[in-house]
């Protein structure tokens, strides 16, 4: 069984595992990089890393259309429930839960999490997923570099999905240091080239990662997929 990752653009991803679609940070409306409209994407679960509009995105609309269960931190889930969502699951950093698709843990992220209306979105998070087939995937969310990425790396990652855009998150140099701590078999860079402010050429970064680490880089354009 396989793990298929599709990048929809920016940080919006489809993680397909065990026949389930996990839609991560579903930002489509107003996303200049979006490869598809929010009305077209499948979702059995929606994972929201933090409250910023470019991550919570079209969560409410897609959850209502698909009936997907939304997973995020306690504060964001409370806010979504106030908007009428009922199929929800709150977690928090360090805590994991078993779902039909695998075991999902929320991890530290160094960032903000204010919701679009100014409400408190709690602490931002990343996700550490152990699929029911035993693959380990770390999705960093929006974050700066932090040394405890070593602890996440100790889990033995098959794949890490990390930001490289700079300005709001790690840039390429810190993302290279992150790969060295995470030591994943594969890495997918995200959160770049959506706007001029986070423009990056990922090709030299990918070459440097592959020269200096044992990690294989997958550069996905919006709409492209990779199976791992
Ligand atoms: Ni953010
Ligand atoms: Mn962001």
Secondary structure: elements and pairs:
Layout: E1 3-9, E2 12-17, E3 20-24, E4 45-47, H1 53-56, H2 59-66, E5 69-73, H3 74-82, E6 88-91, E7 96-99, E8 102-108, E9 125-131, E10 136-139, H4 149-153, E11 159-163, H5 172-182, E12 186-190, H6 202-212, E13 216-217, E14 225-227
Parallel strand pairs: 3-4, 4-5, 5-6, 10-11, 11-12, 12-13
Antiparallel strand pairs: 1-2, 1-14, 2-3, 7-8, 8-9, 9-10
The structure holds nickel (II) ion and manganese (II) ion.
Nickel (II) ion (NI) binds next to loops.
Architecture overview:
The protein has helices at residues 53-56, 59-66, 74-82, 149-153, 172-182, 202-212; strands at residues 3-9, 12-17, 20-24, 45-47, 69-73, 88-91, 96-99, 102-108, 125-131, 136-139, 159-163, 186-190, 216-217, 225-227. The longest helix is centred in the last third of the chain and has 11 residues, at 172-182. It has one domain (4-227): Metallo-beta-lactamase, Chain A (4-Layer Sandwich). A seven-stranded mixed β-sheet has the order 6-5-4-3-2-1-14, covered by helices on one side. Strands 7-8-9-10-11-12-13 form a seven-stranded mixed β-sheet, covered by helices on one side. It has 228 residues and is α/β, with parallel strands linked by helices. Helices cover 21% and strands 29% of the residues. The mean pLDDT is 98. Strand 5, helix 3 (74-82) and strand 6 (88-91) form a beta-alpha-beta unit. The site of manganese (II) ion has 6 residues, from helix 1.
